[in-house]
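Slack export, channel: ligand-projects

TW: morning all. Re-posting the request from yesterday since it got buried. We need the structure predicted with the small molecule present, not the apo form. The ligand is S-adenosylmethionine; the SMILES is in the block with the sequence. No rush, but it would help planning for next week.
GE: picking it up
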Amino acid sequence: MTKRWVQDHRRDSWRRQAKEEGYRARSAWKLKQIQDRFEVIRKHDVVLDVGCHPGGWAQVAVECSGERGEVVGIDLMPCQPVEGALLLVGDITDSGTQARVRREFDEDNKRPINAVVSDISPDITGNWDIDQAVSIDLVAKVFDFSLPLLAAGGSFVTKIFQGVGVDELIQVVKPHFTKVRRFSPDASRNSSSEVYLICLNHRPWKAPKGRILARWEEAVTERIASQTEVAPETESVKKMGRILRRKQEEE
Ligand SMILES: C[S@@+](CC[C@H](N)C(=O)[O-])C[C@H]1O[C@@H](n2cnc3c(N)ncnc32)[C@H](O)[C@@H]1O
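GE: finished. pasting the full token output, ligand included:
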């Protein structure tokens, strides 16, 4: 009861501070704290904000990139306008939406993206295994879509839910960046098992062949195979095995 009260109180306090400073959502503080620590967005940067509704991160991205920066957001839900940002509606995993977003960067002004900030989160069903597996699958798809658009030296931030498959995801994205680390901003601490993956200094020339999603699935399958050969399956590996098999059956 006491722990719950402390968590609620902390969340309320970030919400209050966000409101006082004119941000739409408590989540704005998470990006501000990531920015303070890692400076993922620089002045004049071109930024892609994935899962941008209601617009808190877009507000922070506009502030950080300044007047000569550019911010494009995308979400399933429409947002109230944010001055200085273009906020589109669509599913980032859908090829039509991807073409629309790509057009904003590729064709219209030919500027590569300097920072991808993704706070994407699926509809939470309450079934932790499913929610975590769906979230990691979404994150891998966001990597696959946006890495080809990300400039050398660029940064990539994404929310992930701690759990099975995260180590494999980190292993798979590591070669693409100089530094990849997990970070838990104060504004999200205690609230859930969410954590942010901070990937700095994109180095496209080091990118291994193959899509992130396929390589991640391979890495998880390998882990399951190796662990079942040498040791009794742990509960978490069994869980991921079940999720992967279900996913393969659906496809
Ligand atoms: C935690 S909210 C983002 C909050 C936002 N960063 C802010 O500060 O206002 C997560 C968002 O991800 C969006 N989302 C989930 N799946 C998506 C998808 N496939 N394509 C685009 N957006 C998606 C949801 O609609 C939701 O608005």
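GE: first-pass observations. The chain has one domain: 2-207. The CA atoms of residues 133 and 202 lie 26 Å apart.
TW: perfect, thank you
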